[in-house]
Amino acid sequence: TKGAGQSASLAETLYRYFAVDLDKSQRAKFNKSWDGIWTDELVNYALSDVVYLPKLMREQTLWLERLGLTEDFTRQMAKIT
What is the H or E stretch that residue 17 is in? Predict the structure, then answer.
């Protein structure tokens, strides 16, 4: 999706925040014919997706605070959790 004209994909979000360029070349291996074996390449691919999440959450939390939206965010999250 493109809220405010920006993609919400993790790869593009990480690039916007941290100039990190995720390698998505391994993504195609996760399909119906995947044999379930985690090669080093697949593990590294999966880790590259999640290693930045704590830092991204901190950055986005700071933005919520700057915009005065922390309470609204908390209220909305309570509706879905």
Answer: helix 10-18
Q: Rounded CA gap, 58 and 55, in Å?
A: 5
Q: How far is CA 24 from CA 8, 9, 12, 36, 44, in A?
A: 16, 12, 11, 18, 11
Say which range, 16-20, 22-26, 31-35, has the weakest mean pLDDT: 22-26
- CA Rg value for the chain: 16
pLDDT digit string (tens) for 4-18?
778 888 989 999 999
Q: What ranges do the domains of the chain cover? A: 2-80
